[in-house]
Specification:
about 55% helix, Rossmann fold, 2 domains, 15 helices, about 325 residues, 5 strands
């Protein structure tokens, strides 16, 4: 059953994956309105609920095993739905096992270091799921669309030549490979929003008073560079989707579908790791049995000595009885 579920999830996200080595033209290759044949939002909501339950189970195992970590990078244009995706997809997960980091304009301290320094500081620990709300890819997106930002990074002249972007792609790929080699799986999601849907979301932020705080005039200035960003995203996806850290282009015009896809991508990554609960030694089991007997002796009069074990036994008897009735009915 688990294998069937893993295969279904892999099949569901396959159209979203950027195959390593392919040249991407974002507008032609990926439709922001795609929804994989899911007709109704309520069906998507149910899929998301199942996905959240699955993620919660795998996150508990990841934390217990304490061997691997997962880094999920979320990129999108303004109003792409990053915050909502994080809030819904991670809603059922123990907050202690999740680390979310957002990256804004670099500080003076951050500019005094190499461009990956501030991202390295926010990496998850083993047993954790880390989410970058925007990520190190800002260094080949915003900085590429606005190359004057390279001046603020105080790079030596030799590092500012025409090959700066190809070099950064290579350095990012090498860094992610290093992380994977050391047990930290990297998965990257680009929320692909159409220009028209962005316009509508901007208008909603203006028209609904409770959303005014989310809108900035800078958002409109960046929208004017739409074509530049589309080219930068296409080049980034082409150069940095690798076997060890693939990109998934998630259709984002429908928020509910984007959340289903993001949950599926993260679940696929965790299922590939397949973390297991630690093995308990025979000595530890004997110690647990002794503690259990002591706790059972403390049960108040008239109360079950071990309610959990009693309930588990009851469920097992019901399951066994149901199986017998089913077999008996087959003979008639």
């Amino acid at each position: 059953m688990a294998e069937d579920r893993a295969e279904r999830i892999a099949e569901f996200i396959r159209p979203l994956r950027v195959e390593p080595g392919t040249k991407v033209h974002l507008a032609k290759d990926f439709d922001p309105g795609y929804k994989a044949g899911i007709r109704k939002k309520k069906d998507g909501v149910e899929l998301l609920r199942e996905g959240v339950e699955l993620l919660a189970d795998y996150q508990r195992r990841l934390a217990a095993q304490d061997t691997y970590g997962v880094l999920m990078c979320l990129q999108a244009l303004d109003a792409g739905g990053k915050d909502g995706t994080i809030r819904h997809v991670m809603s059922g997960i123990n907050p202690q096992g999740v680390r979310v980091a957002g990256f804004k304009v670099p500080s003076a301290e951050e500019l005094d270091h190499d461009f990956l320094w501030r991202y390295t500081r926010e990496l998850p620990r083993r047993g954790e799921i880390g989410i970058f709300n925007r990520s190190h890819y800002e260094e080949v997106l915003v900085v590429r669309v606005h190359p004057e930002n390279l001046d603020r990074q105080k790079l030596p002249e030799s590092a500012r030549g025409p090959d700066v972007w190809e070099r950064r792609y290579r350095e990012i790929n090498d860094w992610e490979h290093y992380l994977c080699d050391n047990g930290f799986k990297v998965v990257k999601v680009f929320l692909n929003l159409s220009k028209e849907e962005q316009r509508l979301r901007f208008l909603k932020r203006i028209d609904v008073p409770e959303r005014n705080w989310k809108f900035s005039s800078a958002d409109v200035r960046e929208r004017a560079r739409w074509d530049d960003y589309q080219r930068a995203f296409s080049q980034m996806l082409s150069a940095t989707s690798t076997e060890w850290a693939p990109w998934y282009v998630v259709p984002a015009d429908r928020k509910w579908f984007a959340r289903v896809c993001a949950a599926a991508v993260l679940a696929h990554t965790l299922m590939d790791i397949d973390p297991q609960y630690p093995h308990v030694s025979a000595r530890t089991r004997r110690e647990l049995a002794e503690v259990r007997r002591e706790l059972e002796r403390e049960a108040p009069e008239g109360e079950p000595r071990d309610p959990y074990a009693a309930e588990a036994a009851k469920r097992a008897r019901r399951a066994k009885g149901g199986g017998k009735r089913k077999r008996g009915g087959g003979k008639g």
